[in-house]
Write a structure and sequence with these properties.
By secondary structure, the chain is of the alpha/beta class. It has one domain: Alpha-Beta Complex (Spore Coat Polysaccharide Biosynthesis Protein SpsA, Chain A). 21% of the residues lie in helices and 24% in strands. The protein is built from 6 helices and 9 strands, in the order E-E-E-H-E-H-E-H-E-H-E-E-H-H-E.
Amino acid sequence: MERTEFGQHRTDITGLILAGGRGSRMGGVDKGLVDIDGRPLIAATIERLRPQASTIVISCNRNAEHYRPYADRLVTDLRADFQGPLAGIEALGEINTPLLLVTPCDTPNIPSNLGARLLAAMTPATDAVYAQSDGRQHYLCLLLRQRALPTLSPYLDSGQRSVRHWLQTLNTEAVSFANEAHAFTNVNYR
């Protein structure tokens, strides 16, 4: 991945932050807008993702006016009733880059080289690469090829919602971020 300095970003990667969840583990609170150290959680996630992508899209199903300043584009689920993170990816539609870097909004410490490390593990045959650390799979810290996106709607139409199972339908690899579990800690508290 190119080094990014002075606002120059990757031109081949779209960044997608998933912030469209119900927030049920937090009593219905919109996690991306939770105040952490004096600023919304989404701000920390954006800070880490912005240098790794040419365009930042936030998938949000409420509070769009609060998310708008942080993204180049906002999308909302095409499906009703908060159907999970895959619905947030599906909402993106077509992208004009060959790669999509996905992160959840509640993981503000993603590595600043997440995209580079995932990209380094991609071969021409690989459709998707996700992070793993200390025995845990982080399926939503994910780099996808554009060609994998059309498989998502039929998968969701079949009633499936599991990110792990969808990734198993693709040519997928995991990348170890050994001893970096803190980078993938989810903020699920109020």
